[in-house]
Amino acid sequence: MADTKQHAGGSALLAGFALLTSQLSLNFGAAMAKHLFPLVGVEGVTAYRVGIAAVLMLLIFRPWRTALTWAQGVNVAIYGSVIGLMNLLIYRSFDRIPLGIAVAIEVAGPLTVAVLSSRRPRDFAAVCLAAVGLYFLLPIHGKVDQLDPVGVLYAAGAAVCWALYIVYGKRVSVMHGGQSVAWAMLAASLFIVPIGGWYGGAALLTPAYLLIGLAIAVMSSALPYTLEMLSMRTLSSRTFSMFSSAAPALSALAGFVVLGEHLTLTQWLAIASIVLASALTSLR
């Protein structure tokens, strides 16, 4: 019995580490992508991220070796569509408002999942703590008029997609792991890549841009989605959601290192509040 508990604890710790690595990779990839927006457009960068990641994952996991049932196919199709739309919306948001603020709005998605799936008072306290941090992180104290409202709406749409990503990702995670993610990325690319091609045009074929797009695809899609799929097998939706709530801290760090985006002391304290909430809910 003790060995079983230790194994379960080790698995949960490993899953948490995988999710943290995923978030770091995802956010630094997003910061890199923002540099490419003026060159091939938001839609073009999204096409790079989704399309190249789909090709890589199809080659690595070769999902056609395992047939999907009709129900599994529907879940994978929805999951993939949510991934594609979430990527497009958050990138459009990044193009209009600062990286950390966009992710702070987007994190409302996993927070909502955490509230709906909570069963303990401590979880509600953690959500409240994260909500307080989110409130002070957003520039709504006399500076809200500086935010592009369209950018805020894009981030809110990405929040809805993030919540659906967790719900359907949990369903897909019990299937075939990386193979399921490969099918999902293919589904996402079927409608994202044509959009990117329409907006980006021939510039998407520039070798230098393709190399940057490859790096973005690996850092922002192929690696993080695979790690998240592995972590979803062990972590509950509630715990996964609250771990994800630390994303504003990581995005702010990526924005500072890669883009030179500076935050105020109040904003850093707000981020610390969200990270503390994530740690609180993950305790057992």
Task: Give structural notes.
Helix 1 crosses helix 7 (178-200). This protein is 82% helix and 0% strand. The chain is mostly helical. It is globular and about 45 Å long.
Order of helices and strands: HHHHHHHHHHH
**What is the number of beta strands?**
0
Question: How much strand content do the residues show?
Answer: under 5%
Mean pLDDT: 80
Number of helices: 11
The largest β sheet comes out as: none
Radius of gyration: 18 Å
> Residue ranges: pLDDT <50 for 5 or more in a row?
1-7
Explain the layout of strands and helices.
Blueprint: H1 2-61, H2 70-94, H3 99-106, H4 108-116, H5 121-137, H6 149-173, H7 178-200, H8 207-232, H9 237-244, H10 247-259, H11 265-282
Helix pairs in contact: 1-2, 1-7, 1-8, 1-10, 2-6, 2-7, 3-6, 3-10, 4-6, 4-9, 5-11, 9-11
Concise summary:
This protein is mainly alpha-helical. It has eleven helices and no strands.
Name its key features.
mainly alpha, 284 residues, globular, 0% strand
